[in-house]
Amino acid sequence: MQRKIFMLLAVAALVSSNGVISFAMPAAGSGAITGKVTYTGTPPKMKPIDMSKEPSCAKQHATPVSTENVATGPGNTLEFVVVYISAGDTGPSEPTAAVRYDQKGCQYLPHVLPMQVGQQLQIFNDDQTSHNIHPLAKVNQEWNKSQPAGSPPIDTKYDKPEFIPVKCNIHPWMHGYFVVLNTTHYSITGPDGAFSLKGLPAGKYTVTAWQEQYGTQTQDVTIGAGETKAIDFTFKALPY
Amino acid sequence: MGKLFAIVVTVIALVSAAFFAMHTWWLPVDISTTGPAVDHQLTETLIGTGVLFLAGQLLLGAFAWGSSGRSSDRKTKVFPGGAAPLVVAAILVVGVEIFTLTFVGSKVWGAIYLAPAEAGSLQIDVQAEQFAFYFRYPGPDGKFGAVHPDKIDDGSGNYFGLDPANDVAARDDVVVGSLVVPVNQPVALMLHSKDVGHSFYVRELRVQQDFVPGLDIPLHFTATQTGKFEIVCTQLCGLGHYNMKAYLQVMTPGDYTQWLKAQESQ
Asked: B165 and A167: CB-CB below 8 Å?
């Protein structure tokens, strides 16, 4: 019986050697950590952004967009929180697909972009106006690049883990974050505040949740093989 | 050849003067109480310089016409005393013209810019930065919150560096990207720059004033017509200078009150 299973696995590994599923990856596992990020207290009111000086952007928004530094959802959920394994991970595997960052309607989409160290990052200007993207890196190399309408995407990557605020040197209201992580296991919350870290082997992990205004929180979690554990993060929000 | 030159010079001079005389490309509409004084001064300057320009060009044409065809061995007349008195005379003539214009002009400028704003003016704070203008109204309490440059955070919309956590007066301050004022209401702006030199220029107001980092510069005006007008930066301030602008919206007092209430409730 055992032998049969072994044979099956061997066949599966062979089949997957063309890169579809890789049994050879060291960090593969079927455990998961899921949960929700919420706040207590009163978060600050997000401010509407006046884009009237850039009509090509203003007309893309039927209702004015707002600042996104504390984005909340129904049920006191927090959006744009990056939840990741900060300790206990067996190390990053090679990042595969490139991540995409858009300048659209004079906003950064997504507002917060998590990525892996060394992962290819492509920055697009989808607007009919010039942008000058300026990631304010301190650990990595800082740069800023002008990107007139119709320019090809900027192709780049970051070598060290860092939370990098991003601004536009032309449109002061444009604001976002690059979150460069040393792990494959990360998740960013949507409006429902939910996150899920999948594919974890059994082990003891430190899970960190990062919110751009409220900083980080960590929790230690131990999961068994194939186990799914639920943890929640709660940030304390202040109105100002 | 000399006669052809004379004709060309005369035609160019007359045609360019005609564009001014006929107001072909004239000034934009004037919507401020101080605009007429500026326009009057500008017209006087244009007449003065225009008359001198025409006289100079027509004389040049006349001399070229009269001297054409003369034999070249004829003795050239020289200015009495030679080159030095000629240069001194030219400097004196041009200098008197420039100084006259400056003195008369600065009197008009001073009467507008150096005069204090009217009592009861609407106070609005202006922050210029690369590459946008932001405007701050004191809110229902009528008080501006203090500014702390270290608290400036464009990403969260704190363009002025307010500290609402510790400063109650700052909590209701209204910060917007357009300058909205009621018509016929004296407005007193206080200009600040976050980074480099900028300039506040509204053609229709006939108002132009530089921002200087580190200085609080007052500026006042009264708009006499409703409408939407462009505020542009006229001091080269960097890469995005071409794109640094905002809008001045002059509203009826009723519309203004409504607009302000809507902003305060946000």
From this structure: no
Cα–Cα distance, A52 to B19 (Å, whole number): 35
Please report whether residue A232 resides in a domain: yes
Q: Quick check: B125 and B160 in contact, CB under 8 A?
A: yes
What range defines the domain where residue A73 resides? 28-237
B155 near A CB under 8 A: yes
User: For B26-83, how does the pLDDT look when each residue is reduced to its tens digit (9 = 90+)?
Assistant: 999 999 999 999 999 999 889 988 998 999 999 999 999 988 877 777 777 788 888 9
d(CA A112, CA A176): 6
Calculate the CA B228 to chain-centre distance.
Answer: 18
Higher pLDDT, B243 or B31: B31
- Nearest Cα to A78, choosing from A56, A46, A103? A46
Domain assignment of residue A13, yes or no? no
Q: Is B242 helix (H, G, I), strand (E, B) or coil?
A: helix
Q: Is residue A122 domain-resident?
A: yes
Position B19 pLDDT exceeds 50: yes
Chain center to CA of B183: 20
Q: A133: domain CATH number?
A: 2.60.40.420
> Which residues face A181 on adjacent strands?
A116
The nearest CA of chain A is from the CA of B130 a distance in Å of 7
Interface contacts (A, B; CB < 8 Å): 70
Kindly list the residues from chain A whose CB atom is less than 8 angstroms away from the CB atom of residue B200.
Answer: none
Residues of B within 8 A of A69 (CB-CB) are 155-156
Q: Count other Cβ atoms within 10 Å, centred on residue A53.
A: 22
Helix axes B2-21, B35-67, angle to 10 degrees: 170
Residue closest to A93 by CA, chosen among A170, A166, A28, A159? A28
Residue A155 lies in a domain: yes
Nearest to A172 among B132, B165, B266 (CB): B132
Contact A33, A196 (CB under 8 A): yes
Helix axes B35-67, B83-113, angle to 10 degrees: 160
How many structural domains is chain A composed of? 1
Domains of chain B: 2-68+80-113 (no CATH), 122-264 (2.60.40.420)
Q: Work out the minimum CA distance from B94 to partner chain A, whole angstroms.
A: 43
DSSP string over B177-191? SSEEEETT-EEEEEE
